[in-house]
Design goal:
Number of strands: 7
Strand order of the largest sheet: 4-3-7
Bound molecules: zinc ion
Structural class: alpha+beta
Number of helices: 2
Radius of gyration: 15 Å
């Protein structure tokens, strides 16, 4: 279930580009990780990544704002599992598999 607000792609890119302009010398990907973590603690999440269609498409955003996609087979029962994290659809920042 939603807890934090997911930014639109353009909003997140604008935030990362502003951070890059303020701190030249840090690469875009590193800055994106830092911006994601900073936003996550104030209730905002970066847009989720492209879904991998070969596994369950349930998503979870961890406390640092990193997204995880379930690695189990599509349509499974029970908890979703991405190795480092397991979750249920009822957890905060969990998004059920898309049909
Ligand atoms: Zn799953």
């Amino acid at each position: 279930m939603a807890a934090r607000t997911i930014l639109k792609h353009q909003q997140f890119e604008d935030a990362v580009e502003a951070a890059c302009a303020a701190l030249p010398g840090i690469g875009y990907e590193d800055m994106a990780d830092g911006v994601s973590a900073a936003l996550a603690v104030v209730g905002l999440l970066a847009p989720p990544p492209e879904l991998d269609g070969d596994t369950c498409t349930a998503l979870y955003a961890d406390p640092s704002g990193q997204w995880w996609q379930c690695e189990d087979d599509p349509g499974h029962d029970g908890r979703h599992d991405a190795g480092e994290h397991t979750w249920t659809d009822a957890d905060d920042d969990a998004y059920p598999a898309q049909q």
